[in-house]
Amino acid sequence: MVEMKKRVEELDRLYPQYLSDEAAKQAIMDVGRRLYKKGYVAANDGNISCMVEPGIVWATPTGVSKGYMTEEMMIKVDLTGRVLEGTYKPSTELMMHLRVYQENPAVKAVVHAHCPMATAFACAGIALDQPLLAEAVAMLGPVPIAPFALPGTPAVAESIAPYCRDYKAVMLANHGVLTWGPNMTEALYRLERVEYYASLLMLTGHFPQPARYIAPADVEILKTY
Ligand SMILES: [Zn+2]
After folding, report:
1. All domains of the chain, ordered by start, with CATH?
2. Phi, psi for residue 108 in degrees, rounded to 5
3. Does residue 207 have a pLDDT over 80?
């Protein structure tokens, strides 16, 4: 707890300001365009959020491409998921974002994407923990894999909770990648680092590995979505 408190104080000193509502919405739209251009989010995949005051977050809604978002699409929520502003519907993955803020008070931005290289590792059950790249070791640290959880269920938030304090990113089995940071730029950079790291691991022979498939019982549930 003392460690955590010291860390939060240090981060608050480095990044003392929360973004304004306006700046947070702009930052989310900028990051969305960047994720889309880089091929990290197919169709309407992925979601982005940014804290603007303790317990209050702007987030992307469900069902929109992250490459073509406008300001009116953004929703403002509290940490229980209650919508305070905006007319769009929250994403089912919002609770995963809110859990990161709850678990780690130093976090002010969260990014989730389905970037292909890292997601391939997440499907194969291979954590990104080889000391291959200096930047990955120094700036990112190991990236573990949270167990598979059915999208839209509370199990998704539960699955990532153990990693939010001691890691900078986590892969979601058979799903994608989640990163967070003391500001939006750092959360985005961590995602880019995860994907680059996974790409280099792939190019240096740590792949292919057989994928682990989703359990048949979960497949049946997914068919009803
Ligand atoms: Zn997802």
Report:
1. 2-222 (3.40.225.10)
2. -125, 0
3. no
